[in-house]
Amino acid sequence: MNNLTPYLIVSAILFAIGFAVIVTKKNLILMLMGVELMLNAVNINFVAFSKFDKIPEKGQIFALFIMLVAASEVAVGLAIILKIKKYYENINPEKLTELKN
Questions:
Q1: Which residue has the higher pLDDT, 37 or 101?
Q2: Domain limits at 32?
Q3: Phi-psi region of 89 (alpha: psi -120 to 50; beta: other; left: phi over 0)
Q4: CATH number of domain containing 10
Q5: CA 45, 47, 52, 58 torsion: positive or negative?
Q6: Predicted pLDDT at 58
Q7: Tell me: the pLDDT tens digits for 20-38?
């Protein structure tokens, strides 16, 4: 049984939750977690579609690259957030108006 629909449904739900977190939350760390959810949803799609490809390793290799990008994004993002917290003493994106100029 090669049914792709459950994987796509789970992926769409994860992507929607991640997008909702990014749009609604006012905390930079939670927004970073929303980006991670969205990247994991893309990983599920790559692995699910690789099952139906002639060379199934392509989707899994793309998923590994996305995991590497996500890990580096978390490291750099947390470093930036900690510097912002130290300098402005706040990580609420709406109160960081000096960064807009």
A1: 37
A2: 5-88
A3: left
A4: 1.10.287.3510
A5: positive
A6: 86
A7: 999 998 888 888 899 999 9
